[in-house]
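> run fold Transposon Ty3-I Gag-Pol poly, partial
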Amino acid sequence: MPKHKCPFPECTYETEDISDELAVVMITIHNTGAHTNTPAPTQLTQACKVERVKRPNVCAGGSSEEWSYFITRWQEYAEATKIQGKEKVIQLLECCDENLRKDMTRNEGGSLVDKTADEVMAAIKKLAVRAENIMVARVELHNMQQDRDEPIRHFEARLRGQANICKFTIPCPTCNVDLNYTEQILRDIVTRGLADHEIQLDLLGDKNQDMSLEEVIQFIEAKEAGKRSAGRLQEAQSLNATRSQYYKAKRDGLKSQHLTTKDTCYYCGQNGHGKRASKSIRKHSCPAYGKTCGHCGRPNHIETVCLQKTKPKPPLPQKANNDQEGAIFDSLCSTSCGISIDHHLYNQLNDCWVRQSSKPQPFITLATTVCPEDYKTFGMTPPEIPRRRLQIPVMADTGCQSCLASMKIIERFGLQQKDLIPVTMRMVAANNKGINILGATILRFSGRSKSGATLETRQITYVTSDSERLFLSREACVALGMISETFPTVGEASPLITLPPSDASPGNTNTTPKQTPQSALTAPCNCPLRQKPPPRPTQPPFPANNANRAHLQQWLLDYYAASTFNTCEHQPLPLMHGPPMRLMVNPDATPVAHHTPIPVPLHWQEDVKAGLDRDVALGVLEPVPIGEPVTWCHRMVVCAKKNGQPRRTVDLQALNLHATRETHHTQSPFHQARSVPTNKKKTIFDCWNGYHSVAIHPDDRHLTTFITPWGRFRYKTAPQGYIASGDGFSRRFDEIVSDIPDKTKCIDDALLWADNIEGSFSKQ
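> ok
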């Protein structure tokens, strides 16, 4: 038979003189092994995806060590990204935080994009590095010590970072080359700052007293590794010894039970086969084995040794019937489930529960320091540490009887556990578990009040390792003016606000209002909480003249900031007293309902939705409850204001056609303006959300329903665009201001006049 060659060019392989079928198999095997393409190494390398390099950050007021670290990170970032020219300058500027970038722009008088990278780096360093005396850095370096359980390599890294800014160099007098003696300094500091005194003694007692820094580190590293290994070995040995002792005691106990023949058998009361022999021994030796007790009915013991006090009653025969079977079936098929709800807070103004998260824990940042004078007062030697004034966030815990701090926070002042004051105090946490007290120190806490006054308190602070925070006690909170000395007292925190009772009907006007402390209200913003107006001032705080007019105006705005001039959009509006307004619509009218909303332009949707949410928070609107049928349903119409912002309205024309007015006359603005005397001091007011301070009856809310792309809403207060809203508001407002002389009013605008500024002030 002929031989067969490989079909690939330049391949010399050929088969033997075999059959054609076998030759085909051999050629296939050859092609698979010799001519299979494999990807090149470069292709595999290109398939790997490298993680993006993170850009370093820098902020103002840093130390020289932090600046050195930033320079190193920036060089690595620039090398990895290969940025050059203007792009490098932009990336360098983006490394600065917002405050540093703002200060640089102010300092340079404009943008720094056109400058070189070196010039920008110099400008950043000028503002980012806090100027320090090199002596201070060297003193801090010499005071550094190794923390407990800190590896020696980590301690060395901390020392090198601080040593880089100490500049341990000296010029050579002959060759003018700077000689660096940092290694020698670090070797001595490492030896002095060791936390393990045994390793320190071994290092100081070693024959080789000329070791380099690296040799010292290796010596300490070996000692630390040996101690860790010895500790694990001792734990394993003690565990094995404890296990062996346990098993030995167990074997001895079992053996003594089998071998002791003097004890009385627990099952039959006889001697000779042990107190509690095994089952195999009792089967041949115990006469009670296999018998049933005549007192309790249990097997393998007799009545004379039975420990059962009373004889169990025999079970009563039960007749199975359909009722019992049904009860059993019901009990097997019944299930219980709990209702899970989110956290809610009760809103007094709206008289309802509102889903809202709990307030965050009360943290406040206070200036904290350790003063040697406080130690001398108690006749104690103060610790030798530099005086530091740190801004530390503390938790104002009114339930804490003594100040408590974490050891990590105390170490920031330079104090170690050996510097703490020994105490015998025992403290218990809220879960009745003890707190490990390491000692105590004396701290001074100070802060600035809103009026600018500085308040300070000195407190003995106990130190623990069970927490990571600093807790301020009740006495400290009182000393800093956070709470009063009579805390807790109901109604002490804020004035009272009058609200309608929760059980009052909408049309009942004779109910007695209830009072609730203002602290029960919450607001998700920094606006003052709404409350009743404070007592009316008896006299002006400044002389009532034209020079102080602006000051008097501002004083009134501040004095009534939480009541009259409170325009917060996150708190429900206070409502006018009196019966709610009824929407008098013809009951025979055919309701008009639109089921498709008018589309809102995309660039307005966010603002329109925010306006709806704001009115819901104010108590003006409410979403239509689930399951509420549609009767009247109007359309929301959005149009543009003069400034391009959206104006949201509701088309109530169909409802107005069948509505009846509650007519109340208002004099024309022309006649009102003519009635104001000349040469008078005038004061003008404008009611904010005036119509929305008139509540409508709950039975009439469905008449104001309107549809939006975000669902159906309805009014809880008088809507603008309804034919009778102006009548209802004007009637109520006129009754409120009816006793005020020298005034005129047009809808929600009012004007008062007086002969002089003092007279105008007395009308407020």
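Confidence is low (pLDDT under 50) at residues 38-45, 331-336, 495-522.
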